[in-house]
Amino acid sequence: MAKKWTQLWLQYKPRKDCGNKGYFENVWICGFSAEHKIVVNLLKEVEKAAAGMLDVHPDFKEWSADETAHTGMLLCKSEVSHIGAEGYEISEKAGLLTVSAREEKGLLYGVFHVLRQVALEQSVSDCYLCINPDNPLRMYNHWDNMDGSIERGYSGESFFFANNEVIVDERIEDYARLVASVGINAVVINNVNVKDNATWLITDRYFKDVAKMAEIFEGYGIKMFLCLNFAAPMELGGPDSADPLDPEVRRWWEKKMEEVFEAIPNLGGFLVKADSEGRPGPFSYGRTQADGANMLADIIKDYGGIIIWRCFVYNCTQDWRDYKTDRARAGYDNFIQMDGDYHDNVILQIKNGPMDFQIREPISPLLGGLVKTNQMLEVQIAQEYTGHQIDVCYLIPMFKEILDFRTYCAKEDDTVADIISGRTFGNKNCGVAAVCNTGNDVNWTGNDLAAANFYGFARLAFQTSLTAEEIAEEWIRMTISCEQEVIDTLMGILLPSREIYENYTSPLGIGWMVVPHEHYGCSVDGYEYSRWGTYHRADHLGLGVDRTYNGTGFVGQYHEPNVSMYNAIGTCPEELLLFFHHVPYTYQLKSGKSLIQHIYDSHFEGVEQVEEMILAWESLDGKIDADVHRTVSERFQRQLLNAKEWRDQVNSYFYRKSGIPDEKGRKIY
Amino acid sequence: MAKKWTQLWLQYKPRKDCGNKGYFENVWICGFSAEHKIVVNLLKEVEKAAAGMLDVHPDFKEWSADETAHTGMLLCKSEVSHIGAEGYEISEKAGLLTVSAREEKGLLYGVFHVLRQVALEQSVSDCYLCINPDNPLRMYNHWDNMDGSIERGYSGESFFFANNEVIVDERIEDYARLVASVGINAVVINNVNVKDNATWLITDRYFKDVAKMAEIFEGYGIKMFLCLNFAAPMELGGPDSADPLDPEVRRWWEKKMEEVFEAIPNLGGFLVKADSEGRPGPFSYGRTQADGANMLADIIKDYGGIIIWRCFVYNCTQDWRDYKTDRARAGYDNFIQMDGDYHDNVILQIKNGPMDFQIREPISPLLGGLVKTNQMLEVQIAQEYTGHQIDVCYLIPMFKEILDFRTYCAKEDDTVADIISGRTFGNKNCGVAAVCNTGNDVNWTGNDLAAANFYGFARLAFQTSLTAEEIAEEWIRMTISCEQEVIDTLMGILLPSREIYENYTSPLGIGWMVVPHEHYGCSVDGYEYSRWGTYHRADHLGLGVDRTYNGTGFVGQYHEPNVSMYNAIGTCPEELLLFFHHVPYTYQLKSGKSLIQHIYDSHFEGVEQVEEMILAWESLDGKIDADVHRTVSERFQRQLLNAKEWRDQVNSYFYRKSGIPDEKGRKIY
Fold first, then answer.
1. Is residue A67 annotated as a catalytic residue, yes or no?
2. How many domains does chain A have?
3. Three-point CA angle A518, A520, A522, nearest 5°
4. Site from B319, B540, B646, B648 to mutate, A interface, most A CB atoms within 10 angstroms
């Protein structure tokens, strides 16, 4: 029988014991009700995992304190202060492994931690730790449409929606298990571009099914969020306005939210894309973004709801002739003045960079630019600009760079990780979201290797101190193989893959150069004369966008010393050189190479690196699952074609424009 | 009440009499049956036209030779040899205007000629002429799909099809009247890309409605043709092959054609796009294009059917790195060897240029290259690459150039007009087709001024000696106004409009530089690194495609002296310079300007010319129909935006690439 879908890192294949088996013979519960939905689910999970990995069938029992010499695993409620609401502690003593938590959700994470150790073939008797998640909100944003399509989806159709209906089936449960096992606690199920039927998700047309799905999620500690259409009052037969300060509009929303939270009481709240790329919003009524967000937030506050408001607001009808307007400035310019005006249950969700999920961008200056506003980081594991899950691009190293970036917004705790976790400003409504890369493909993510991002983002969101290497190795062991040779080979593929992708695509932070709309494949001038604000400004002498004080002044949006660092060509990190400066082709880089020679060299190198990755992958034939090997091999061939096309187009474009030949005399067209 | 659609040049508005009224009081019929469908229709037309234009209601009577002193109009059958099958003669004597013809169809054209004179406010008593149409087939090709969409349609949806059904309504009759009035005698109703339901047009699923439409057409002397899916046997449940030499496939087609011609006995035949842009064809089976065409032609010969076979066969997955393969060569290379192999009821339909309906191309070397094959010229009035019926582009001057081009395939009668009319080789199955620009918009053609092409192509097809000026003036008088000021102003807009479009778009025959797929708007590099074989090869020193003997050798496909003319940069017509040569920016043109300065100047000039056109058009406000004036004004504003965008993108692109400034110091970005 054909598999309907894989179980990814929850395969529970037989594992070497490593002394873990004993802990699964008796499982004691203390202080938690075995009837609680989350506990029921986690016990099922333990049973399944123990049977699959260690061939043992646990006995579940209530703990009674008078018994002595217990061995096995104890799942124990604990009120000790170092365990946070979603945290857990694991300790071992005399054959008894104790997983302590304050709440069921923490217990769930603790249990999954134990199961992960087993899957990794590591002894849990070594475990002695207390882990509290770093980020309050750890969220997946799905851009799924109700017709079943997925905006920027590269893994088949939606498993949340089909034919304008909500799907509630076994896969939803598996999805919840998968993401909960790595600590995700919030999920947005529909596309931020809310249109057509999706506007009706907040009506009784869909309440029943949405509530069912939310209940499944709740059983795994996951809050469901929905995306809202800001113009919903007008489209759902309410007042003929969406003005957030219009009392009639407000009354309409009050009534609507009453209905919504009555039908879906465990709903987490809403994600809103307003005044962006054609979506309606408060600007249409001369109101501020804060007016819009606060109006909604106030209404849902009593239901415990929060409003997550996206900051992706920019002029998408720019004139390419205009060298002064800079899309990179837009997020900051549109949101900074209202800093402090947003109510406490509003979070601004900020894309990692000021443009749009390019392979290399500086950090958005809003992150840490805002100092009195709840902030959430948005990254994208859907590989919109990073290879469409055809090309391998392990993104965790990029996310680490983002999290580690020092914004200098505070004396201490000034990194992006500090800000979004709440450490910097002491706030609770904050965290990190990723635009997700899943769909109804058998393997969830199209390219099997793209699941490393699906896994890795969540792990990093939970524990930002994990390294990209640790996460990659965990994922490989759990999903592909625990054989050292396989692990080494795959680490060698995953870890440099982002830089390889960067090598054969757009150089030194300039970004774009992609086929318009589709965003896969090269088109150097594809966006150069367009309205999207995404230019490289190449001429016969050089390229790059001058964003210094001499140019668009974007650099001024950062705190010092970042301003000075970016503003001077000599101190600007070279990987971002063309993002901040217009640079002559003959400019000498730190490597001693000219800019143009660097472009040629990195593009030839990128293709060679892909060829090496393919050789490495081919060496795994017979050592890993045959289906996975074949599927990924096919995608690698497409990646190679893509890389060659980028190499030749970029090199030819700049050779034709500059007239400067490659020093090494390689073939340029 | 809102008009459902306009009547274009058959409005029959009140006209100045000019002494014409008397001819419409009595209309005599001699030798033709008043019951014949065409005669019935033409009498209805006379009645309507006479009432509308001259407020007279004709008395229709059988002619009796013994009566004397008849006045009025006599519609008379004649067997004199100088009147051809579709020709007519008009003469006046003593108050009797005689329209003579051999057949009803000729009579229809003669009557429409008379009605046209009335509409033009010219006395028909001056008429003394005999006109035989120049081209045997005068055809419109509609690219209408059965879902109602139109490929490259810029005038709304189809009026032939909607929701996968054939529409037979009053508009079909009006369409037939309109095109018959200007001499069209053949119409293909469905898209050459035959897919989905259109494959089923030759099944009893659609026979009834198709036959009804064909009957309406027949009443106006129009043969209906259909486009065929060469893979129909496989898709309609026949043999699992479409190999033209497979006896089973042949038998399937025999049976199919028997059904088709039984159901639609007056069908003219089929137009086939095979082995082109993904369409199936004989090449898939290692057969020649002649094998495919002849097989079908033989089968339908006994039904009087003909096969029109398109020559638009080229490699649409070319590698842009390949400078030797030349799409311009493909038509000739694919078809020349089989010259003489095509059976007599096969016609090869050849696009005017070797590429694809660009604003400026040389003539396809197949025209006159083939000397033993029926040839038909294909032009496009759907403004795919010439402004989408947003921009005004009167195409008749271009068609005149095409028809007048000397191919040197024969000592005399060597022009394209000679070849396709049958004068050169004495053949009958030949003529001219245009991809049509109509849709179900109220005004038929989106832009009211685009109807000048709809009218003009047909008039030119009938009578190739007409000048572009004559046709424009006729159309203006019949459709817009007979006021001299309006005529002068509109002539001033229409006649230079093709050169104006050329000025602000791609220079000197290079073509393309359009937004891929859409083909409206500028994208200089849009196709430069693509698989479509459409390149400009610009670098920092120059641009153009070397198609001389030093380059792709395309020039060798012409007859001398054309070969030598195109091969040498000094004798190559400058408007085609970049089509045939790769030229340095500093090359001096005959005007004394450098190539780069010509590019700058023509692009600035093009925009100024559009501004002048708009001023001219605005001066007509109040002097012509207000709806027409407003609709066209709106389009002119879009044309101006388009022209400015082209100007700035092309100039900026070449300035950035060449580094050579505009001598006049104008703004380039």
1. no
2. 3
3. 110
4. B540
